[in-house]
Amino acid sequence: MSKGLKLSTLIVGDAQADRVVPPTGFTARLTLFAAGAMAFLTVFALALSLASGRLATRWGEELAQSSTLRISAPAEQMAAQTAAALTVLESTPGIATARALSVDEQRRLLVPWFGPDLPLDSLPVPQLIEIVETEGGYDGAGLRLRLQAEVPGAVLDDHTRWRRPLERAAGRLRLLGWVSIGLIGAATAAMITLAANAALAANSQVISVLRLIGARDSYIARAFVRRFTLRALLGAAVGTALGALSVFLLPATQESGGFLTGLGFHGLGWALLTLIPVLAAVVAYVATGAAARRTLGELT
């Protein structure tokens, strides 16, 4: 039967064979709806996976090239230790810039946690120094030894403990997106198989008559495979278009908007959407062909 299911035959079709499969009815609506709904969900799963990949890359790049130095010292020694720390940092290879945060900048960092009325002047808040690394980075172990000797109250944070969990979480979200796409494909195959089985069972008498007049199983199966493949292609195309429109209408990426505002497609990501209807058609082709072989074998 596989020789009878050629691509050219699938595209051109056979008017007589197409009459075997009812053009309308429950199976047609089920196939169109299943393919459309699954394609719609696939668009969002793909958007989630791509956005997670971009998020992991951005987090890694932003945190990998920045560090923070925290200085805890009595108020009368804070200025001297800050100056000593800046001197050490400015002479360290691999550090592009080092800047002590102002009181207003530190207050803005603490506002989300303690509110806008935090009295920093009356609290022993450490002095923070922002460090921007060069592309090659610096020797963290060596810098910690120098700071320990010259600025005892300084603690260097290279953001490793923050970066790795964030990158791991984003990577798992990306994996979840691809797993979701796989499950959606499996569910689509199952629903199309059920629809094809129902159509084959409903036309069992027609199939018997076709066999009596000499029709081969490959000829009969071709009609079912072509009709269900084209239905899946049409339904998936509509579902993909609606999903792409929904993603397009989401808020644009913003610096302060977080992850959800970046849920979308960029550049070649939009081109990947064209593969969804094609993959849905391939799934329908394989699922219907397997169902037809099994059902025609049982009707023998």
Automatic annotation (TrEMBL):
Main location: membrane
Protein name: Cell division transport system permease protein
Compartment annotation: Cell membrane
Transmembrane segments: 27-48, 173-192, 198-216, 228-250, 270-292
GO biological process: cell division
Taxonomy, superkingdom: Bacteria
Topology of the protein relative to the lipid bilayer: Multi-pass membrane protein
